[in-house]
Amino acid sequence: MTNKKEITCIVCPIGCKILVKTNGKDFEICNGNKCKKGIEYAKSEALDPRRMLTSSVLVNNGEWPLVSVKSSKSVPKNKIIQVLKLIKKAKVDAPIKLGQSIIKNVANTRIDIIATKSIKKLEKKDFYI
Amino acid sequence: MVEQGRLMMINLKVDVAIIGAGPAGLAAAISAYENGAKDVIVIDRNSWLGGILPQCIHDGFGVEEIGISMTGPEYAEMYIKKAEKFKITFLRETMVLQLDKNREIIAVNKQELLKIKAKSIVLAMGCREKTRWNFMIPGDRPSGIYTAGVAQAFINLYNIMVGKNVVILGSGDVGLIMARRLKFEGANVLGVIEILPYASGLPRNVVQCLDDYDIPLYLNHTVTYIKGRDRLESVTIAQVDGKMNLISGTEKEIKCDTLLFSLGLIPENELSRNINIVIDDVTGGPIVNQIFETSISGIFACGNCLQVYDTVDALSLGAKHAGKHAAKHAMGLKSKHNNYIQVVSGKGIRYVVPQRINKSGKVHFSLRVEKPRESATLHVFTGDNELLKKRLPWINPANMMEFDVNIDEETIKSAKKLEVTLDDK
Q1: Contact assessment for residue B319 and residue B21, using Cβ atoms and an 8 Å cutoff
Q2: Predicted pLDDT of residue B59
């Protein structure tokens, strides 16, 4: 069965509305994208929807109580809840460097959860209050 | 340096002083340095650099600017590293109390009172969120009511969860992003309420923050009553008609313990107003010329205190422009202020920045339209002379638009007014 579907591109803030034809396996762009990234996004959205995931992880002994994190690659939509649960359970010691891997191969996705912020070790206790 | 409970008085002389170390201040500082200013100082009241970026942990920053999607903290760190390499001076936890027309800044921190004499100043104070009191929403005053940005700081920086059952009023980007964030943190997001017939945030955020998680968006609705004794107990929402009048009988009470406001942002210009810098009533920011210089010579403005941007990419670009010209001014290149062409927002246009032109050359404009349109044509006129005609495929007030116009010497000499309009053709 071939479906026509309008996809709003989320690659950049423009948000092109891309019309695609798909049967779940094959895929064809009808119109709407302004750039090449839009084609890639529409294809992935029609056949294998994924999202970049960002959240935060608890920090031990850091000058901030949390470190912001992201997935190294976009996560399949149906795995997002599972990955979020693992992120919530994690705890990491300061100091932390931007780009440092916090959880490797999260939920067997071959995707890592990495720090998006550097956190120094806490020296003064009242730093963030 | 505290002397018997007294503040030490420090006098400084710098080329360029920048007020605010958020994305605009950082970009302006780097650009000022790259364009020849030697002593660049950036003053911020927070203990950290990057302003609001560290709490914007979602990604999408940098796509237009460098083609890579970064999170807010990553984007900030990229600029901070560069600024540190350039030996730009940062005064943290320092509050600017006062400016004067001769570009002297009075600032204070825990140790010292500073008097900073700058050859040029860049205003980069950013903006504040609108609150319940900007819209006078009736009802009780319980706890559990926050602006979306404050809730974002609590959750993403301080690890404080704001509530369990949340309603969000206003579909600005921060509100949409917080809807998803709250869902990720286990809250029940009952809906996003928007008075307009369309979302005010970017389309991509409606898709990936609301649609992905089945969070309802109530268009043409608003909150009419807030109820709760100690903690918020419920909000009443109602539908509005095309003229934004409430439709009676459509009221619905939603039980909730938390209400977030994402109602728009107000440029922060108390410092500017105190020295009578001319403010644009629509943007809420200073009126500037093509080099982002305000009505006072040598004082420049950029970032969200100039106009509220929808992406940091466009904001940084504008801030670099201001920083560059602040450096040039510091090195002796002054611009004339007496004669200028007034830029007028015509039919279909909410505002245009810059608002004044006093020198020929390529001018980069940004504007916001009044309402969404399927297709439109943009016109730029001086009198009967059409300087630019541009077809636009799809426009939305949520997306700031940018375009360039070449303005020649003759236009500068003869024209009084430059009008920007939009039609449906």
Answers
A1: no
A2: 92
B157 to chain A: nearest residue by CA?
Answer: A66
pLDDT tens per residue, range B305-357: 999 998 999 999 999 999 999 999 999 987 776 789 999 999 999 999 999 99
Whether chain B has a CB inside 8 Å of the CB on A9: the answer is yes
Overall number of domains in chain B: 3
CB proximity A14 to B under 8 Å: yes
Residues of chain A with pLDDT below 50 are none
Q: What is the pLDDT of residue A127?
A: 54
| Beta carbons of B54 and A84 less than 8 Å apart | no
Residue of A nearest to B74 (CA): A116
Architecture in CATH for domain A54-115: Roll (3.10)
Which residue is closest to A51 within chain B, CA to CA?
B208
- The DSSP 8-state label assigned to residue A107 in this structure reads G
The last residue of one of the domains, among B276, B310, B334, is B334
Domain span at B37: 9-127+265-334
Is B203's CB within 8 Å of A8's CB?
yes
Is B3 part of any domain? no
> With left for phi above 0 and alpha for psi between -120 and 50, is residue B202 left, alpha or beta?
beta
Predicted confidence band of residue B3 (pLDDT cuts 50, 70, 90): low
At B5 the pLDDT is 63
Q: Rg for chain A (alpha carbons), in Å?
A: 19
Q: Does the predicted interface ipTM exceed a cut of 0.95?
A: no
Yes or no, beta carbons of B158 and A65 under 8 Å apart: yes
B198 vs B203: CA distance, rounded Å: 10
Whether residues B392 and B319 fall in one domain: no
Closest by CA to B351, choosing from B372, B371, B373, B368, is B368
Same domain, B122 and B270: yes
Measured between CB atoms, which of B184, B208, B311 is closest to A84? B184
B295/B297 Cα distance (integer angstroms):
6
Q: Is residue B422 part of a domain?
A: yes
Q: Rounded to the nearest 5 degrees, what angle is found at the Cα of B273, between the Cα atoms of B269 and B274?
A: 120
Q: Are residues B138 and B249 in the same domain?
A: yes
Q: Pick from B183, B78, B160: which is nearest to A53 by CA?
A: B183
Domain holding B200: CATH number?
3.50.50.60
Domain ranges of chain A: 3-48, 54-115
- The answer as to whether B1 is a domain residue is no
Mutation site for B-interface testing, chosen from A54, A113, A122 by largest number of B Cβ within 10 Å: A54
pTM of the predicted model as reported, rounded to 2 decimal places: 0.91
CB contact under 8 A, B58 and A64: no
* Domain end call among B334, B361, B386: B334
